[in-house]
Write a structure and sequence with these properties.
mainly beta, about 120 residues, 11 strands, 7-stranded mixed sheet, 4-stranded antiparallel sheet, about 50% strand
Length: about 120
């Protein structure tokens, strides 16, 4: 059972990035999926979530209106589209889910917003 993120990069303020997370070893469509981020010296924070089934979404106040979470159950993939990136979005971004009561994390992907 694993999650693998990709898509992190260096981008200028105002730019866009698309992060992807591919799950394997479990029935992807059964699980709510989350994106977290952790900036240097800061706590890991929840950025966005998407439920199984209807695909209802949640966004933190800091990214609402700029980020969009989506999922493709046929490809076992959850995606985070990030637009209008700001310096403060710089962080390692992690894909996450609850699997059998425990947190499962990907390895993380670095997003750096810099001019």
């Amino acid at each position: 059972v694993q999650l693998v993120e990709s898509g992190g990069d260096l981008v200028q303020p105002g730019g866009s990035l698309r992060l992807s997370c591919v799950g394997s070893g479990f029935t992807f469509s059964w699980y709510n999926m989350n994106w977290y981020r952790q900036a240097p010296g800061q706590e890991r924070e929840l950025v966005a979530s998407i439920t199984s089934g209807e695909g209802s979404t949640y966004y933190s106040a800091s990214v609402k209106g700029r980020f969009t979470i989506s999922r493709d159950n046929g490809k076992n993939t959850v995606t985070l589209q990030m637009n209008n990136l700001k310096f403060e979005d710089t962080a390692v971004y992690y894909c996450n889910m609850k699997y059998k009561g425990s947190n499962l994390w990907g390895q993380g992907t670095q997003v750096t917003v810099s001019s």
